[in-house]
Amino acid sequence: MSTEGTRVLVVDDEESNLKVLQRVLEKEGYQVDLANNGPEGLDALRAASPALLLTDLKMPGMDGLELLKAARAVSPATEVILMTAHGTVELAVEAMKEGAYDFITKPLKRHDIVRAVGKGIEKAMLVSENRRLREQIAAVSGEGPGAQVIGRSAPFRAVMDVIDQVAPSEATVLISGESGTGKEVLARAIHRLSARSAEAMIAVNCAAIPENLIESELFGYEKGAFTGAADRKPGRFELADGGTLFLDEVGELSSSAQVKLLRAIQEGEFERVGGTTTVAVDVRIVAATNRDLERAVAQRSFREDLYYRLNVIPLKLPPLRERRDDISLLAAFFVARYALRNGKQIKGITDEALQALIAYRWPGNIRELENCIERAVVLCRTDQLGAADLPRHMQPEGHGGPRQIVFAIGTPLRELERVAIDETLRYTGGDKKLAARLLGIAARTIYRRLEGERGDGENS
After folding, report:
1. Cα separations (Å) of 188 from 25, 105, 167, 250, 438?
2. Are 117 and 8 in contact (CB under 8 A)?
3. Mind giving me the DSSP string for 126-160?
4. Which CATH superfamily is domain 7-138 in?
5. Partners of 315 in the β-ladder
6. Alpha carbons 79 and 126: distance in angstroms, whole number
7. Cα gap 296→308, rounded to integer Å
8. How open is the CA angle 279-285-287, to the nearest 5 degrees?
9. I need a surface site. Which of 163, 295, 370, 453 has the fewest CB within 10 A?
10. CATH architecture for residues 157-318
11. CA dist list (Å): 139 to 125, 133, 343, 360
């Protein structure tokens, strides 16, 4: 880890000491700033935020300990070394408690200065590198304050323009769009840009919770409310109090759950399962669905009053095939994420691979793109992700692409299903869950069809 050019601030009220320290440190390759007293040193800290502060302890006015305390507030990333002719255990302990990295005594010896400053700089650089890596991981993992929604296409910019207006309000938002388009990422952007960002955003996948458990998940339960309820448990509404509650796949809620959800949204209060006490909460609702809720209302499978309560601000998230200008940005983002996670030194994507990604229709949207890039990164053996690293059905001609299947009129339905499943599994490289999403069926349907075929073969 090179320290050449690293900035060091030296503070001492003796001009001769400043000159000596400047010569020694500049000879070691450091960039040295000088200050004659504590206030000047504090101004230099504010102006430059050096990697290391080397300060005399005994100075008129603001002494070294006071400068150390100020440095902790003004430039917390700066490591501090104190030097004094009056080195005592008590002073050393006090300095360490205040955050000093080291403590050296006068008369100063060249090798002591070089050793202490070198170790202090190394510590500062390690801390800085760790912080940078944490921020990078947070950004590319889609978590933390560094995580951002990604896009520059006109359809995506139109959505973000609405979010900029809507996020600071308290209005309920309904995000619609195909599966895998990034509805939860958008919901988190709304929360992050709102006045509630300091509080929690609690996400609930309504489709993943069994109907008999949805009420207790949303509203919590009291001790003894049912078998196994050993203690009171808060629900998602309580956990989101003061923040945002994200209801993903809200269109999958049962009729009874819709009634209870409507009351909680309208009144801002509810009772826990098995309880009689009314619990009041302050929650902003952001909901998402891949269903056509207007059609569901017309078909009476979704309550009209709940639909209008949720649909105060409608946001339609375009599918990835309508955002082709965003594919290169998203692909680069996912390459960085999964290269970091898997310890791969991948610098980018070849033009051939990028053109193949842009040409593909992405029925599984951003989720499919992410899965594709993760797989490609793991299999990549060079520092550039190439077309040969992509799944076969995405590769350009000559690398193995999708096939066109023609059926004769009167082909039995069972045969059509079998070929559709087989071809989709070929496209996904055997990923049954992704194949099920692309076909719009449950994964268990694919497993059941495949098991049935094996059973037929064994019986024949």
Report:
1. 48, 53, 10, 16, 25
2. yes
3. HHHHHHHHHHHHHHHTT-STT------SHHHHHHH
4. Response regulator (3.40.50.2300)
5. 175
6. 11
7. 13
8. 130
9. 295
10. 3-Layer(aba) Sandwich (3.40)
11. 21, 10, 16, 26
Tokens representing residue 116 in the block: 């202490």
- Nearest-angstrom CA–CA distance, 379 and 391: 10
CATH of span 322-394 = 1.10.8.60
The amino acid occupying position 339 is A
Residue 251 and residue 202 in contact, taking contact as beta carbons nearer than 8 Å: no
- What pLDDT digit, counting tens, does each position of 342-393 carry? 888 898 899 889 999 998 999 999 999 999 999 999 999 898 999 989 988 8
Residue from 51, 52, 31, 33 nearest 43 by CA:
33
Question: What CA–CA distance (Å, rounded) separates 91 from 57?
Answer: 9
CB 357 within 8 A of CB 327: yes
Task: Report the 10 Å Cβ neighbour count for 195.
Answer: 11
What are the tokens at 86?
A: 């009056």
| pLDDT value for 47 | 84
Q: How far is CA 240 from the centre of its chain?
A: 19
Q: Tell me the helices (H) and strands (E) count for the chain, helix number first.
A: 18, 14
pTM over 0.85: no
Query: How far are the Cα atoms of 47, 300, 302, 310 from residue 294, in angstroms, in the given order?
Result: 58, 10, 9, 12
In CATH terms, are 7-138 and 157-318 the same topology? yes
Question: Angle formed by the axes of helices 432-439 and 365-379, to 10°?
Answer: 150
Q: Is 378 left (phi over 0), alpha (psi -120 to 50) or beta?
A: alpha
- Quick one: tokens of 347? 């610098």
Residue range 382-412, pLDDT digits in tens: 989 999 899 888 877 544 444 556 666 767 7
Distances, alpha carbon 208 to alpha carbons 203, 249, 331, in Å: 12, 9, 28
CATH superfamily of 413-459: Homeodomain-like (1.10.10.60)
